[in-house]
Recover the amino acids of this structure.
């Protein structure tokens, strides 16, 4: 009794196939001359299965690592990071990312010549990194704060953390403003470091 099996391409379902050797695990590899793709009849590497691929992409977008995904799916001990980065980058093309900063603002003084000739430095830092976003030297007046404010408006800052100096609450919208020394510890520390250097 002769048993025959019709083999179709798993992508275009045509039968114009060529055998192209075997993999390390002994599985026969086929090449479809119609759609120019290589495939196997059955895969031992479970991440190639369509339903597993969808789960991998979903877990990748939720910030799961390669080992974490392999452990959670219990399908494969090895995973190809290239597959993840390729899938992630294709999906990222469709995502819109909006970057928002949180800033701390403060002012400190020094003098030129004698203490009656005070100079105030107004500046703002990005809250997470501590990077100085903008600064202005002048007096401790509203118009000097407004110079700094104009420079900061270029950045997508969603929330400002300041002390209770009047210029801040006068010009920063209330829904974007948090007052309190407990929220400005990073910039206060920068002030201390600059005083002692």
């Amino acid at each position: 009794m002769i048993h025959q099996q019709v083999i179709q391409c798993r992508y275009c379902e045509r039968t114009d196939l060529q055998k192209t050797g075997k993999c390390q695990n002994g599985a026969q590899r086929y090449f479809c001359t119609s759609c120019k793709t290589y495939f196997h009849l059955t895969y031992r590497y479970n991440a190639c299965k369509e339903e597993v691929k969808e789960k991998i992409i979903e877990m990748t977008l939720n910030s799961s690592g390669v080992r974490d995904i392999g452990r959670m799916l219990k399908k494969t001990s090895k995973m190809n990071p290239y597959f993840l980065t390729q899938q992630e980058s294709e999906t990222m093309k469709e995502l819109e990312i909006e970057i928002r900063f949180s800033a701390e603002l403060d002012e400190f003084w020094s003098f030129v010549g004698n203490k009656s000739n005070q100079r105030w430095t107004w500046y703002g830092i990005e809250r997470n990194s501590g990077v100085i976003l903008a600064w202005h030297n002048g007096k401790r007046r509203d118009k000097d704060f407004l110079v700094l404010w104009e420079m900061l408006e270029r950045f997508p800052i969603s929330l400002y953390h300041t002390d209770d100096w009047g210029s801040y609450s006068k010009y920063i919208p209330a829904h974007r403003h948090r007052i309190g020394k407990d929220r400005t510890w990073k910039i206060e520390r920068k002030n201390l470091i600059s005083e002692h250097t």
Summary: The longest strand covers residues 101-111.
